[in-house]
Amino acid sequence: MGVNAPLNRKLRMGLVGGGQGSFIGKVHSIAACLDNRAYVAAGALSSDPARAKASAPDYDIPADRAYGSFTEMLAAEAKRPDRIDFVAITTPNHVHYPVAKAALEAGFHVVCDKPMTFDLAEAEKLVELAQKSSVVFALTHNYTGNPLVRQARDMVAGGELGEVQAVRASYIQGWLRTRLETGDQKQAAWRTDPARSGLAGCWGDIGTHAYNLARFITGLLPDQVSAHLKTFEAGRALDDYGTAVVKFANGCLGTVTASQISHGRENDVRIEIDGTKASLEWHQENPNVLWVRKNGSPHQTYTRAGGPYLSATAAGSCRIPSGHPEGYLEAFANIYTAAFDDMARRLSGDKSPGKSGLYPTVVDGLDGMNFITQCVTSSKEGGAWRSLKHPLLK
Amino acid sequence: MGVNAPLNRKLRMGLVGGGQGSFIGKVHSIAACLDNRAYVAAGALSSDPARAKASAPDYDIPADRAYGSFTEMLAAEAKRPDRIDFVAITTPNHVHYPVAKAALEAGFHVVCDKPMTFDLAEAEKLVELAQKSSVVFALTHNYTGNPLVRQARDMVAGGELGEVQAVRASYIQGWLRTRLETGDQKQAAWRTDPARSGLAGCWGDIGTHAYNLARFITGLLPDQVSAHLKTFEAGRALDDYGTAVVKFANGCLGTVTASQISHGRENDVRIEIDGTKASLEWHQENPNVLWVRKNGSPHQTYTRAGGPYLSATAAGSCRIPSGHPEGYLEAFANIYTAAFDDMARRLSGDKSPGKSGLYPTVVDGLDGMNFITQCVTSSKEGGAWRSLKHPLLK
Amino acid sequence: MGVNAPLNRKLRMGLVGGGQGSFIGKVHSIAACLDNRAYVAAGALSSDPARAKASAPDYDIPADRAYGSFTEMLAAEAKRPDRIDFVAITTPNHVHYPVAKAALEAGFHVVCDKPMTFDLAEAEKLVELAQKSSVVFALTHNYTGNPLVRQARDMVAGGELGEVQAVRASYIQGWLRTRLETGDQKQAAWRTDPARSGLAGCWGDIGTHAYNLARFITGLLPDQVSAHLKTFEAGRALDDYGTAVVKFANGCLGTVTASQISHGRENDVRIEIDGTKASLEWHQENPNVLWVRKNGSPHQTYTRAGGPYLSATAAGSCRIPSGHPEGYLEAFANIYTAAFDDMARRLSGDKSPGKSGLYPTVVDGLDGMNFITQCVTSSKEGGAWRSLKHPLLK
Amino acid sequence: MGVNAPLNRKLRMGLVGGGQGSFIGKVHSIAACLDNRAYVAAGALSSDPARAKASAPDYDIPADRAYGSFTEMLAAEAKRPDRIDFVAITTPNHVHYPVAKAALEAGFHVVCDKPMTFDLAEAEKLVELAQKSSVVFALTHNYTGNPLVRQARDMVAGGELGEVQAVRASYIQGWLRTRLETGDQKQAAWRTDPARSGLAGCWGDIGTHAYNLARFITGLLPDQVSAHLKTFEAGRALDDYGTAVVKFANGCLGTVTASQISHGRENDVRIEIDGTKASLEWHQENPNVLWVRKNGSPHQTYTRAGGPYLSATAAGSCRIPSGHPEGYLEAFANIYTAAFDDMARRLSGDKSPGKSGLYPTVVDGLDGMNFITQCVTSSKEGGAWRSLKHPLLK
Q1: Do C301 and A303 touch (CB under 8 A)?
Q2: pTM surpassing 0.90?
């Protein structure tokens, strides 16, 4: 909480997106500000300049820093002594790349919503840009910010599961069971529009979350994928359901399933991981527990309670005592927190790697775009195997 | 309970398998006798005649009806005025066909454990034999006997889910995480032995249960399958993990996953079904509830409690009031109960179809063997699509 | 399964109660016969002789052993060489004592439903009768038959919880939310009738189960009670809700709450036990798990899975592998099983104590009647403390 | 989010307590600032002036507004044009009253942690003071801020439960199972110290939460209480366990139980409410669901999902879409939000009652102190009935 050591001041956020009617922009601002380490200093809140200005008071953005476009914001802010430290990109997908590119080139740190870009080519260019620069680039695969997801990851990394051999990840929603996009539902409209969402609908919006979660926890490199995407709502331009089989480099077999058309299901992200020594299960809708199982022992339920069994990273990702539920916002804020640690270090002149392993980066963004792209192609080819190896993916 | 109308006496069971060290033979006898409508009259309890005899007192089988082989049993029983009414086949898979064939040819009713046969060719022959005869042939895909599974099926059949578009079925176990088959674990030994289990291990033992459950509840006909089976325990001769994508004839997309190597997981059968009007979720380890969800309404939890919302079949499948858990044995017994209704009718001369839709039959057994066979082939061919249409599958 | 060593034959049950329209009589017969160690040999199934006879075929009772009254049954059976071994009393409460007394005096073993008698005086007389005789007297507080309840008890006895300091037990139902007793619901009618149920309604029917469960698991002796019983349904003659504070002899503080008027609640028996070293939680509607918690450790979920952590008694109380749910009937049968072990021993001439600690006995029945009686008195006196110490309660 | 209509600016918080080592002070500041409607403008963070100053940067409090005592803060702030709008009292209990009194007298709005005061006399004086003034006085019984708790309350108020007849509320923790207070655990030290905590330990800290939750949801007025408090950890000066029976004015029977010594239990607040038409159940550790049950219907699980079934107040208490968990901080913030609405109105000159029913007030604080006081007395008198009617309790 409070200042950012060693920088010793709050970080200044430049918010792109988040205008009236938006959902995720507000989430970013709450998450970024939750620990009082940042504030929204400037914004280009909408592609409609009038709405951009009108939305500024919602974030306490002063009128002179409520810009009509991100270009304008970056140009004006670059000249200020109290210029923004980072840009948060919370727009529909097709706008991610131009904003991120411009921010990187201007030397601003970047926090970008997922999926990272509109297409794979943009993602590749962004990796190159980011790797040439020295800025922090964080991608908000927010579920990885949950303390018990980080615990799971640390357990795998520490060998407590042995070799990971099977992963089952899914993300089941129901809100697009009807064609909300034909009404005035902004969230539905852009997510189902190929011009704004990209190649995929459900698969890019949430399938990629499930895939990333599997990658984050297991640390396994992907090898190949075979996918089947479906559009169940007649007239919809993009997929609203899909499933994929993923072969990982070590021989692990994974499945990823995502749905937007399952009645009554909300944001049901679940992951199960089987290792040779133990297995794990975690559900996003009940995020404060992690089930750990081992043949011959009682099943174990890890909570956020302190104790010798919780990793330092997991324990350090909690704000309040166990039993008092933490949720979506705290997990989201944990992505910001780790990125802030790195930003503060770099702004203070320290270029060491820091916490870059703790939050998803531009390379994870590329991995996600590659996953989406190969899945869409695989699905068009009847489930043909596509490689998930990518030269930029370490 | 008690007598079987219109037959007005208990049915006489001839048990094949179930000798000392067996598991499923005892389950069959408990299930068959639970409602006092049948008793174990005779048995060929083991392929080892000495053990067959020694095991007879466990079932109250008199010495003169404790046979050394099923051939002996069928021959001797056929001559008795109080001959057995049905044969229950509870042996390893490779023995199912010869027993079933002999029983059918001798005019005995049959209750057979799953998977139905050693290979698809045997299954095809059995369908033809059964269809020529007038006997009852019931296959113990026991999970379909759960009252709330039957409720789910009735809801789909009654249109409460609308069109079914997606199904996710899985069966996750952990007991074969180590190579129990190298010790003296009989259950593990035959299940992992190609000479006794058939083409598949995990997939035939439990993958087929998950597939059958999906078929039973949805009533959808299968079209094609793409499967990936794995053997994670080095040295094991058959698969111990697998996943498949199933396309159904109506365009529904299904996934089936099964594991025997997931630490600490017991018999975790789960199924989720998405329809255009509502969705369902059921877990075998918590079988007394069924979750029904519909956008815009509170989630609903159906229990075995009576009331206008429970179908007559589901209500009729319960023995005790809701809140007092029923479990595996009762569900297993419900398969027997429905088959007994048909047996009693036929033994009384009535040849009408009766409850033949309520328990899995020889055709379901064929469907299962076809599923196993096509999945194994698909897996060998890298997940190639294989047809699940079969001329004998209506 | 099968014969009862060292007796080497099935036990013969004489069922009192269980006529058409009954619930618990059928439960007793299923439970007694589940393991094929007993069969219903004779019955006095109803106080209406015609219905008693008509109900006999439901239990395969031959016509000549379908008696018109329990007096008739005991007299006739006493003369037979294949006389019944035990009497199962499944009538409304007011009939328990005369049947039990007559059975004890005639030297039959007894299995009696709870609460044991109509009033405390009868209970006291029954203890004296039973203690003078050498018969087995088992009381079906059936929830104590659950494997994980027995595990809980063994853990307390083994010191794994340390000193037990607090217990919270409850039994919440909703079926008597309306006055079913004014219609033709037999179960409701006698339970709400002081002439048949005794001093208490809800409290005798289910409050006593919750109390007994606490006593069974903890082994603590009761000291004093303060109770508050309520009748919420206007016109009902007996309580339908109640709560009590129980002081145990060691200083442990207990609470017992029972309801029959909680909408939608089924048979929700829950118990939580706090010891100085660990705590336990168990729910009857989800009986196959036991939660064990200890500060500083992950929460543990015990299941019926074998392994070093399950006590021999708990493991020996399971019929099927873990993950395949066992429920109400199996737990009920476990009471019978333990009693059968003792009956078979005694019938073989062995008078040693055997398993008499594993099933509730006549003394537990007295304890329950004393609990009911003192609670009713306490409630009438505004919650005054009443002693639960009783000279016959060791 | 953003400005407070009609005031059109952020509210300025003066934080009392919250210095290094504190827990609840930080929670208050996060909760107050979550929606960007307030910021911490000044603070008297510790009774130790050096620590008070040192802690200021954690809250971005400028040095000149980091005061050495609350007296100093109130005096200095009263003179500033940008003076604080409200005082948040987050100290140990014995300091609540002097701060609240001084704040009220100086005309500052107040948000006070619970229990409201050190003793009942202070509470009575505070009610009089508050009722004479026109300031907002909010008490942070934070669990009432959960959307589904507010939904429960709206359902009761709207008659959906019928008459409420029984309530079971409990709050089970385990962290004080050992005498943490003998070490350097500040949270444990003051809570177990009669000089700082007041008459009660566990009962004042969490028993009062459970009681308040019952009062908030049901709206029932209390009549009488009989309580039993225990100190299980030898040497501890205050209770660490307790249970009470509460009679409400309408005849409803309630039970309240609280523990700090239940191994492994975290913050397990549960409440069950039985009405003549339906029943409710809610658990704080799983706060995003509310179970609603009605005989003859499937059980219903309400979530935060929008729809015709969620009350406007409940829906308006959510920040993010259902399925994305909200937790402790959001619920806490909802208390602030409702109080802010009233503060902003009053600061704009509007004296109408506003949302004063939506957050606990000074009268609820009095009710809590009366509850604690009568329970302690009752317990000392062996559970004697004590009146909960209080002339200041409407």
Answers
A1: no
A2: yes
